[in-house]
Design a protein that fits this description.
Elements: H1 4-16, H2 19-26, H3 30-44, H4 59-82, E1 92-98, H5 100-105, H6 107-117, E2 120-126, H7 132-137, E3 143-146, E4 155-169, H8 171-177, H9 184-187, E5 192-194, H10 201-210, E6 218-220, H11 224-232, E7 238-241, E8 255-256, E9 262-272, H12 277-293, E10 304-306
Parallel strand pairs: 1-2, 1-3, 5-6
Antiparallel strand pairs: 3-9, 4-7, 4-8, 4-9, 9-10
């Protein structure tokens, strides 16, 4: 059997990226952290971490991290049954990967009932929706919201729904940068906004909507609220989720640069295949909330562009 303290130490090093940082997190000496990892590797007969900066889990280490996440879930479930008095329980912390737009719109509202009903803390790791999948594969999170429909091996996925994005700008910005309408020459000069250099959604939309394959100047803003505010200030245009629009189109603060065009991004909830009431509760809460607030038309491809509709 694996020593839970060694698994906890492995998780701390993988999360922080270093033995010294893991030691501070666990209130241990760096020597104690190194000893636990060495003992774990001796038991397995292979390394569980790379000796790089930052340190990363090997394939064996990733499997152990997944195992540790599942243990936390099952221990929480057992504790709920054996210790009914709330004051005797300890919080369980679960790491989840969530894209910024979901976090800013529906995610917290969806999981709040579970947080209120259980002694649960969430360690939310934010990344691009195309890359949260990797956080789960490497063992950093027990579940993730992702655009990828194919589940990870030993994992399962649930379709949540689609978030619709519109390409918007202020009227003044549109008049300045697109006086003759949106064309390839104007797109090559007009400043836009992307989440990170890994963000391919903006380019994909332009390619599908107007056949534009070239580059475009862009701000890098890793914040959903930052996207909205920078667009409203009229310094750039961007793809914005309709869930974040607060009457911007109706009151004329923003205009649609591609009337009738939109991008639907399908979202899936992935988690490890483990029988846990807590994991099931999180899944059911998200499915229930998203079933009422996200568009439920199945999206055939990773992203699609089509004619805009008014209602989900």
């Amino acid at each position: 059997m694996f020593d839970p303290r060694q698994l906890q130490t492995l998780a701390a090093v993988a999360e922080t990226g270093g033995f010294d940082k893991a030691a501070k997190k666990l209130f241990l000496t760096q020597s104690a952290v190194s000893q636990r990892i060495r003992q774990l590797e001796e038991q397995l007969g292979q390394p569980v971490l790379t000796r790089t900066s930052p340190a990363e889990a090997t394939e064996a280490g990733r499997q152990l991290l997944r195992h540790y996440q599942q243990l936390l879930l099952m221990e929480n479930q057992l504790l709920q049954k054996l210790s009914p008095a709330p004051r005797q329980r300890e919080f369980t912390t679960l790491a989840v990967g969530v894209n910024a737009d979901s976090l800013a719109t529906w995610y917290l509202q969806a999981v709040t009932p579970v947080l209120e009903a259980h002694d649960l803390l969430l360690d939310v790791v934010v990344d691009d929706q195309d890359h949260t999948h990797e956080l789960m594969r490497t063992g950093h999170v027990m579940g993730c919201v992702s655009t990828r429909p194919v589940p990870i091996q030993t994992g399962v996925q649930h379709y949540l729904g689609a978030m619709r994005y519109l390409c918007l700008a202020t009227p003044r910005f549109a008049a300045r940068h697109f006086p003759d309408g949106v064309d390839h020459a104007a797109l090559a000069r007009a400043p836009s906004i992307i989440f990170s250099r890994k963000d391919a959604v903006h380019g994909q939309f332009l390619r599908q909507a107007i056949g534009y394959e070239g580059g475009f100047p862009s701000f890098t803003v890793p914040s959903a609220q930052g996207f909205v505010e920078l667009t409203r200030q009229g310094v750039a245009y961007s793809l914005l989720p309709e869930l974040m629009l607060d009457g911007d189109l109706e009151d004329g603060r923003l205009v649609d640069l591609f009337p009738g065009q939109y991008m639907d991004l399908p979202l899936y909830w992935h988690h490890w295949r483990v029988e846990s009431e807590l994991s099931q509760a999180l899944t059911e809460a998200m499915l229930d909330y998203c079933g009422r607030h996200l568009r439920q038309d199945k999206v055939a491809y990773h992203a699609s562009v089509g004619e805009s509709r008014q209602n989900p």
